[in-house]
């Protein structure tokens, strides 16, 4: 999941999808890349579980998977909490030193 979010183009696509479903063409609009390149990026997002898509006729529509984003958020929050506690302990220790 974090590999998928590491790319700025994929983050742009995810950001757009948080507003609602979008076709591949709509996702490609703000990006300076070919449609096949956009499709490759979407495949990475789908493989990570962040995005799902469905094809109706000739249009492929993509949707965000909110639970996947929540899992990433939870993992980040847990890491942040751990480091905040460690830094608070370090701060307390340094305040005790002459």
Give me some keywords for this one.
three-stranded antiparallel sheet; elongated; alpha+beta
Order of helices and strands: HHEHHEEH
The share of residues in extended strands comes to: 5-15%
Average pLDDT across residues? 94
Rg, alpha carbons: 19 Å
List how many beta strands DSSP finds: 3
Overall 3D shape: elongated
Major sheet attributes: 3 strands, antiparallel
Count of alpha/pi helices: 5
Distance between the termini: 46 Å
Structural category: alpha+beta
Short summary:
The protein is of the alpha+beta class and about 100 residues long.
Task: Write structural notes for this entry.
By secondary structure, this protein is an alpha+beta fold. Helix content is 65%, strand content 14%. It has five helices and three strands. A three-stranded antiparallel sheet has the order 1-3-2. Strand 2 and strand 3 form a beta hairpin.
């Amino acid at each position: 999941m974090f590999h998928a979010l590491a790319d700025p183009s994929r983050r742009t696509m995810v950001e757009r999808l948080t507003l609602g479903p979008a076709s591949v063409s709509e996702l490609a609009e703000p990006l300076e890349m070919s449609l096949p390149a956009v499709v490759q990026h979407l495949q990475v997002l789908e493989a990570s579980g962040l995005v799902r898509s469905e094809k109706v006729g000739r249009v492929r529509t993509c949707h965000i998977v909110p639970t996947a984003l929540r899992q990433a958020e939870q993992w980040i929050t847990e890491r942040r909490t751990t480091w905040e506690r460690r830094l608070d302990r370090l701060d307390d220790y340094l305040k005790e030193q002459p």
